[in-house]
TrEMBL record:
InterPro entries: Acyl_CoA_acyltransferase (IPR016181). Pfam families: Acetyltransf_9. SUPFAM superfamilies: Acyl-CoA N-acyltransferases (Nat). It comes from Thermosporothrix sp. COM3. This is N-acetyltransferase domain-containing protein.
Length: 450
């Protein structure tokens, strides 16, 4: 019997359903599934954009996965062995206060409606988690649909998509001095620098590979019929000088053009450049092809830049107001002691810079179905281990419902904020200030790359 890590792994799920890893021979069947699942109505035509996406992701050129990185369920009892459920495995590297760690990302999760409520996604996620953990991923992350992924050990713990809309009707007519130039390979170092600077204020950051930048600038052109997700542009002033960069959709989504990254080089005045930037984006949005045919006409520019982006300080009041509260990434940390020890240098640095420098003692955190004990000696994190509150005697220093501690760990919410919402979140008078120092609240910004 093959290990779940073996490309030849197969598991019989009953009724002719087989769980296994994909091969290049599965591309069209996976594309067919997604083209039918991702429709607005059961009688709508297949979604051609998803067919292109699957072909693109399963090519050898795609930097985050390859043709063997889908977990699939096929129905061997039907003609043609249709694939009826999938989960892809993407590979990222993130950093916690500059300390790198690997991230496994489940993507393109789908089930044929006729096969739902049979536990197929649970089986696929068990397969995904096994591979992710085996390659050393300390965290799994997904930008998924509401609630669903909580049942697999995920918690909302990182800001995602703070969207601000600018109707193009409010942008003054005319063409400003700023133009957009398609980024080239030579621009990648500056793009990397600007992205790092954008993330510097957050707790979490990303370490994209050269191949990731190269893909949306150059590699995708090997198969232009498959298109690509993102378009990278440099901002050029009237003197021909590069003054910044932005990342936007390569193809417009419905009535909106989305802007995912907008950064200016040091010394460039954001307030002065903004009117010309909006005019350039309006012209660009009007000229690009929509992702799907027969879409709505171009009506607005959506800035998805995170709540702390400086552009919102200078923009029209319309842009200052979010469309709705930001969504969030789901994060999963199976080995919490292991992750905390991995990022111990960051926690120790926070402690050393605080009024609790040199702290010694234990922090016992009750998760109700388990817990955690952290032992510090003279400001050093010496021990982190699983802990469970005994029936008598030893008591906890803080309590969180299962998984909610991840919001504190990744700076998404503070202990004090969560205490106001959840009565079963608690910290003792001694532990509360220590937790505030070790786990400050600070928004992070992360590109989705899709």
């Amino acid at each position: 019997m093959h290990s779940v890590l073996d490309p030849a792994f197969r598991r019989d799920l009953g009724d002719g359903l087989v769980l296994r890893w994909s091969t290049a021979d599965d591309i069209e069947r996976i594309a067919t599934l997604h083209s039918l699942v991702h429709r607005d109505a059961a009688d709508a035509p297949p979604n051609e954009e998803y067919i292109r996406q699957i072909r693109r992701m399963m090519s050898d050129d795609f930097p985050l996965m390859g043709p063997r990185d889908f977990g699939v369920v096929e129905d061997t009892s039907k003609a043609g062995n249709p694939i009826i459920a999938t989960t892809a495995v993407w590979r990222h590297t993130w950093a916690y206060e500059g300390i790198p760690f690997r991230v496994g990302r489940p993507e393109m999760v789908a089930t044929d409606p006729a096969y739902r409520n049979r536990g197929l996604i649970r089986a696929l996620f068990e397969l995904f988690h096994a591979r992710s953990e085996a390659r050393g991923d300390l965290v799994q992350a997904i930008t998924g649909i509401s609630y669903f992924y909580r049942q697999f050990g995920y918690e909302y713990a990182l800001e995602l998509d703070d969207r601000r809309m600018m109707p193009i009707a409010l942008i003054p007519e005319g063409r400003g001095a700023l133009t957009l130039r398609e980024a080239t390979v030579d621009d990648i170092p500056l793009l990397e620098e600007l992205y790092r600077r954008r993330q510097a204020s957050g707790i979490l950051s990303e370490l994209p590979t050269w191949a990731m930048w190269l893909y949306d600038i150059e590699t995708w052109k090997r198969h232009p019929e498959l298109r690509h997700f993102l378009a990278c542009y440099m901002l050029v002033n009237a003197a021909g000088e590069t003054v910044g960069a932005l990342i936007t959709d390569a193809y417009r989504r419905g009535k909106a053009l989305y802007v995912w990254l907008l950064e200016l080089i040091e010394g460039t005045n954001m307030q002065a450049i903004l009117p010309s930037l909006l005019q350039a984006l309006r012209a660009y949005g009007a000229g690009i092809e929509p992702a799907l045919p027969d879409g709505e006409p171009f009506q607005e520019i959506c800035f998805a830049l995170g709540t702390t982006h400086p552009v919102f300080e200078f923009a029209d009041i319309t842009l200052r107001q979010p469309v709705e509260a930001p969504y969030a990434w789901y994060l999963r940390v199976k080995d919490l002691p292991g992750f905390l020890l991995h990022i111990a240098p960051a926690l120790e640095q926070r402690l050393a810079a605080s009024s609790l420098a040199g702290y010694s003692g234990d922090i016992k955190v009750n998760f109700y179905r388990g817990g955690l004990r952290m032992h510090l000696e003279r400001g050093r994190l010496k021990v982190v281990e699983d802990w469970r509150k005994p029936v008598y005697g030893e008591s906890e220093d803080a309590s969180f419902p299962p998984l909610l501690f991840l919001q504190v760990l990744f700076g998404h919410r503070s202990v004090d904020f969560l205490r106001q919402v959840f009565p079963d979140v608690w910290a003792s008078a001694e532990a509360a200030p220590l937790l505030r120092v070790l786990f400050p609240t600070r928004p992070s910004f992360m590109l989705c790359w899709n």
